[in-house]
User: Fold these one by one.
Assistant:
Number 1:
Amino acid sequence: MDTGSNRRRNLEGEVAKLVTIKLVSFDVYMALIDIQGSLTPVTAAALDLDTEAADEFVRLWRAKQMERAAASNSLGLGRTLFRDCTRMGLDYVLARHGIDLPDDQRRELVSAWDAIRPWPEAIELVGEVKNRGYVTAILSNGDHDMLAALAKPFGDKMDHILSAESAGVYKPHPAVYDLPETELKIAKADVLHVAGSGNDVMGAIATGMRCYWSNRNGDRVIDTTYVPTGEGADLTGVLELL
Amino acid sequence: MDTGSNRRRNLEGEVAKLVTIKLVSFDVYMALIDIQGSLTPVTAAALDLDTEAADEFVRLWRAKQMERAAASNSLGLGRTLFRDCTRMGLDYVLARHGIDLPDDQRRELVSAWDAIRPWPEAIELVGEVKNRGYVTAILSNGDHDMLAALAKPFGDKMDHILSAESAGVYKPHPAVYDLPETELKIAKADVLHVAGSGNDVMGAIATGMRCYWSNRNGDRVIDTTYVPTGEGADLTGVLELL
């Protein structure tokens, strides 16, 4: 037994596994776009809050939006639209703050979720992934129309939009991670998913995908049995796995 | 058409519906017991934190425990034990605080969840419900052994323990609210559930139960289409529905 040679073969096996990647799928709301940076000034202006208060407001809004989406998976009554989860989250935080806002201003704030800006390196990174010959896709909890709006700044660098709306459930439900297979006929083994949160890492890894975690806040997966394939403080680390 | 008489008949119908209550089921972790009040001093002592820091610590611990439980429903890989969700939540918060704690001390802190004290009025309230002739039960996300420990202070005032462990999922999944029917042969229409959180209200009302919300923190259901049958700042309001 030549241990050195075995080790090399194992390493070659690892590399062979990695080179089967055909599709790089991207989470949107955490991985590709900057919720806090985009919505904090909008919220501050609309509600006359200082930056710190607006930042807190957006954080709770996001938490409640996601809590309602998680409840949608559990209740078994079909998928509540993400726009409705977003609206309910807003109504919740407004009520907690004792702010009474007319319906049209609430609609405007919900629409601000369609104009969240990509992280500084996001558009170039997606372009580079595409230049290297991979298929690119958004794979996100957002509704189709919300994702279509968010995909615009990426132009033809983004090949496909895969919405949890098609799966009828939210991440980390496996049906969402099935979308590359059901919609693009690309097997999970050929996908590298770029996650923006520990929840997304858990879902992707549990379903058998490889997963890079763009972990901007130095967060940690709650359940450490789900280990991301790669991890970094922004999106650029994706390229090291390609 | 005698509108007055119709109105009276409707009212009698409402009353008739209410008097069919046979079982009063109680959520534990928010409705019956005081997580923050019980765990804050234990955590402060174990980790040498001041009360404010310990209070924050327990809040995040609880949030991550529940996040992992919600993920368990979505992942579709069976129910992760609630004790394991609790342990993962603790590990998460310790890591975020940069605290390295030996395994036996982590186990001790997780065990502290078996000794959380009832709210001041809880034992007497459950006793009064039972005195009035209703069947009483715990209906909770906790594992069987965790709930058995928490039920002890209630003695023979608590007739049954219904654990989400039997349902294989967590609230607000309807299978948990089916437990009175599957385990006690008591129909949902004959149950008044006492919820401790908006999530629990949503699940109980969605499944067709009546539901009283012991809403100690003046919280609000995220999705206001789910309206509790009754609501108050502590458990005593339950009696008004009986």
Number 2:
Amino acid sequence: MDVAAACCENCESQKIKAMKKLDYEQLASLPLFLGIDGSTLSSIYETINPVVAPMRKGNAIITSGEECRSLLFLLEGFVQASAAFGKNRFTIYELVHAVSVVEPQCLFGLHTTYTRNYTADSGGYYLRLPKSVIVRQMMENDVFRFNFTNMLSSLAQDTVNRLRRLPPQTTEAKITDLFSRQVLRPAGRKQIKCKMTDLAECVGETRLNVSRTLHKLEDAGLLSFTRGIIDIPYMEKLIAKVM
Amino acid sequence: MDVAAACCENCESQKIKAMKKLDYEQLASLPLFLGIDGSTLSSIYETINPVVAPMRKGNAIITSGEECRSLLFLLEGFVQASAAFGKNRFTIYELVHAVSVVEPQCLFGLHTTYTRNYTADSGGYYLRLPKSVIVRQMMENDVFRFNFTNMLSSLAQDTVNRLRRLPPQTTEAKITDLFSRQVLRPAGRKQIKCKMTDLAECVGETRLNVSRTLHKLEDAGLLSFTRGIIDIPYMEKLIAKVM
């Protein structure tokens, strides 16, 4: 009985959700639609008829290198972003939380391909608005346009600021800097898949020194590591502590 | 007589130019106005009545930390951009050539202050368009808006790509990486004012090692250095050679 009940609960949570129409209220709360007046938003809502797609843990949503032809909004649940760096010597996995816009800088400009793989890490929903819809909103809607311009400007400002950081001196700081440069957001949980020898090579230190440093950071409760996986529960705490 | 002639030539070149109205053709060739059709551009030209300001070598145009309330276009001549890094341990000077838009990401977003000082390095002209003019063009002009969106997107993409670079391993690469991360554009001539001890501290190497490396790079014709100034004639050649 207990087993059956557990199974049913499990089945319930694993059940694939169906496509559904986005609520009007949800559209109003999306990053780029914030602040648009009610009547304009109603008209947008009727025109774009936003239909959200369900996701199930493990579903691939975007592949790194794929052409960005639509703007993806994560509405509910978690998505895992991952990318390999340094000729595949290490891979960083990080969680993207709802509500988020995925790589908004890829829709325009010179390099319009995604830089990461995005895979569903839970059940949930996402919305894809085709580039044509975004272009139309950029043309017709002042608030949307400035929301988008502000978002792109802030992103450029943030990355320019991150580039200004001076080279790290200690092994702890070298490892932290290596990861914090590559992440989408220098906060939250990050998992890094890498061999100790590759990590040592990337930061220009000996394998023994890297291993000792990871143990020290583990003792301080800033990360944990097992064979080939470094788990950082709070990237912001690690950065604050060692950099 | 010769002296007088030389003096007159000198006076001529040093003469402060007067404010003047921008040519219609010049407006049409500016980065954000490219591709706008003739009649729209004529109407913009009449409305904004663009007046360009003259500059003279040594004139301060923008101070680092100043609030960005207008978009500055360098129309003719050269401007020197400079900024101090690492708690004033080194200062990078680089030339910005006409025609350029200065820090377009500072007009919107969360951090709307300039990151560098800009000083005239030659005679020339610049145009300042107030934020209100840019906002109006963003509202009314589709081509202008997409030019601006593309410019911001490309800037964000470029900086995200620069962040992905792995830590350098050799002393040559460490020095080059330190400078190439901070510059506006990783190409062209750069001058860096710094003490050898400060540079050694910034890259985490000994003073002797840094001095030897600079001599080696000087022998290879990639830079020259005298007391406190490193002169890199072509940043792109240095990057291509050592990274």
